[in-house]
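The records we work with from here on pair a chain with its fold. Taken together, the tokens spell out the fold as the letters spell out the chain. To see the layout at work, look at the sequence and tokens printed below.
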Amino acid sequence: MVTGAAKGRSTRYRIPAGDLESVVLDRLRTLLANPAEILDVIGNGADSRVTQQDLFERGRQIADELGARVPEKIKAIVRALVCRVEIRPNCVQVDVAENNLAALLTAQSDDLPTQDDNPRGSHDDILTLTAVAKLTRLAAE
């Protein structure tokens, strides 16, 4: 990720929102398109009426929707899944609500769960995804 040089000698970084968004979306697409990662997250907790193949196909469908760059759809998916994004010097960590991910993958429709539908509590498991990203400072503009 490229950061802009701050005025003066501040140690803070300015990270363009588009760069951060790209990192988060790429990591979510990777998760959703990878059957092994889906199984690691969902495990045996999936609805028994939903086959593993159904989970994989739904994951690929959602990954494609994230890649299609339809702003309303992307916003809805990200709001349903992402709880927190933490920027570190060598990576970006994306916290995903496992319950919402499972609900999204097992849903029979395009209805997306929201964070409001599933308020955060001690029963809610968080999956932390890591995306490799290096902060690079640009010269003064």
Observations:
- The two ends are 17 Å apart (CA to CA).
- The chain has a mean pLDDT of 81.
